[in-house]
Amino acid sequence: MERPETGEGSTADSLASVPSGIAAELAAAGFENARQVARGGAGVIYRCYETALGRNVAVKVLPS
Hints:
This protein is 20% helix and 39% strand. The protein is an alpha+beta fold. It has one domain. The chain starts with 10 loop residues before the first helix and ends with a strand. Residues 4-13 have low confidence and may be disordered.
């Protein structure tokens, strides 16, 4: 299900680029086209394409 792209906080506004270190780790784990979709106290959520499954997935990266 997609959120409508209206006003501040829309899906298009919330997609942020991924730091290169995180992008490299996600790529090594089989995830491509990562985009940040949320950030909270427990970590950062990225939307990625998982090559093994052939579909988009959500990946939560916890702080170290």
